[in-house]
Amino acid sequence: MTTTGKSEAMRLEKAFFRAHPEFRQKTRLRAQALGEGHVLVSVAEPVIPTSDEVDPVVSAYLAFLENDMVAHPERISPFSSADLAAAHELVRDVEVSDDDVLSDDVTI
């Protein structure tokens, strides 16, 4: 945290902006406090994806999640240690490598 002029400001590493160009300088942002110590920062201007990037099902699901998070922020909570332990148990015997290649019939 820092100050700029008479305002408070957050500083993020330049690598973040290289990885997420939608947060370029002078972009209008929206910040919502989700709870003690947590904030959601999003682009206030719509990011227009190319037609190759648009999946209507995923877009509809993400819009549903966004609306629900805005309408009911009290439902949002961080992972507990029990949640994390359950996730570790789910992938206990799964072995992966950064060099693994996904087949063409796999969609993410």
What does this structure look like?
This protein has one domain. A hairpin with a 2-residue loop joins strand 3 and strand 4. The longest helix is centred in the middle third of the chain and has 16 residues, at 56-71. It is extended and about 55 Å long. The strands form 2 sheets. It has a two-stranded antiparallel ribbon with strand order 1-2. A two-stranded antiparallel sheet has the order 3-4. It has helices at 14-19, 56-71, 81-90; strands at residues 2-4, 7-9, 29-35, 38-43. The protein contains 3 helices and 4 strands; from the N terminus they run E-E-H-E-E-H-H. The protein is of the alpha+beta class and 108 residues long. It starts with a strand and ends in an 18-residue tail after the last helix.
Percent helix range: 25-40%
**Strand portion, in percent?**
15-25%
Strand-pairing-aware structural class: alpha+beta
Measured between the Cα atoms of the first and last residue, the distance is 35 Å
Return Rg in Å: 18 Å
Q: List the domain count as a whole number.
A: 1
Instruction: Flag low-confidence runs.
Output: none
What is the topology, as strand order, of the major beta sheet?
1-2
Using the alpha-carbon principal axes, give the shape: extended
Provide mean pLDDT, rounded: 85
How can the largest sheet be summarized?
A: 2 strands, antiparallel
The strand count comes to: 4
Order of helices and strands: EEHEEHH
Number of helices: 3
